[in-house]
Amino acid sequence: MDKPGPHLKFVTVGVYGFAADAFFEALQKAGVDTFCDIRWRRGVRGREYAFANSGRLQKRLAEMGLRYLHLRELAPTPTLRQRQAAADKAQGTTKRKRAVLGEVFVAGYQEERLAGFDSVKFVEQLGPGARVVALFCVEREPCACHRSLLATRLCEDLGVQVEHLTPD
């Protein structure tokens, strides 16, 4: 397969900061047709984010006509998440307030997940119907989440357009 044409676009989105209706409205407005959940665990703490727990999320996406894929192989491992938690603690911040990823996390994610990642095969896995693909995790800020690392890699390898959806 050659590089994807200009018809393919990626968006990244996290759940923190979004109300349920605004989250799904942002997906619709962006024209998302394929939703890639790249979390290790598909649950979110807090009543306000219950809509992003796997069962409810998949049901709502299906009602909207969006295809859902869980791609755990792109999620950071528990060990890598623990390293980021230690970096957050050292910085005096929390996961929900983090603005950027730590260098140890970035290096680890690139080594564990992106070193063997094939962007062309990834796009093939999405299928020919994928036009606007959402890369989903939980953090509000794209730079505070591994989804931005994946999006950067796709942009570098394939020249695809990437947009980061964030709450107002």
Give the key terms:
168 residues; alpha/beta; 5 strands; 14% strand
The CATH class designation of the domain at 9-75 and 119-165 is: Alpha Beta
Assign the CATH architecture of the domain at 9-75 and 119-165.
Answer: 3-Layer(aba) Sandwich
Shape: globular
Structural class: alpha/beta
Major beta sheet, strand line-up: 3-2-4-1-5
Question: Radius of gyration from the CA trace?
Answer: 15 Å
Tell me the number of helical segments per DSSP (H or I, 4 or more residues long). Answer: 6
Based on DSSP secondary structure assignment, what is the total number of beta strands? 5
Order of helix and strand elements from N to C terminus: EHEHEHHHEHE
Share of residues in strands: 5-15%
Distance between the termini: 38 Å
Average of the residue pLDDT scores: 93
CATH topology of the domain at 9-75 and 119-165: Cobalt-precorrin-4 Transmethylase, domain 1
* Low-pLDDT windows of residues: none
Roughly what percent helix?
Answer: 40-55%
Largest sheet entry: 5 strands, parallel
Task: Give me the secondary-structure topology.
Elements: E1 9-13, H1 20-30, E2 34-37, H2 54-64, E3 67-70, H3 78-91, H4 103-114, H5 119-126, E4 132-136, H6 146-158, E5 161-165
Parallel strand pairs: 1-4, 1-5, 2-3, 2-4
Task: Summarize the structure in short.
The protein has helices at 20-30, 54-64, 78-91, 103-114, 119-126, 146-158; strands at residues 9-13, 34-37, 67-70, 132-136, 161-165. The protein is α/β, with parallel strands linked by helices and 168 residues long.
Folded structure, characterized:
With 168 residues, the chain is α/β, with parallel strands linked by helices. The chain has a domain at 9-75 and 119-165: Cobalt-precorrin-4 Transmethylase, domain 1 (3-Layer(aba) Sandwich). The chain has six helices and five strands; from the N terminus they run βαβαβαααβαβ. The protein has helices spanning 20-30, 54-64, 78-91, 103-114, 119-126, 146-158, and strands spanning 9-13, 34-37, 67-70, 132-136, 161-165. The chain has a five-stranded parallel beta sheet, with helices on both faces. The longest helix has 14 residues, at 78-91. It is globular.
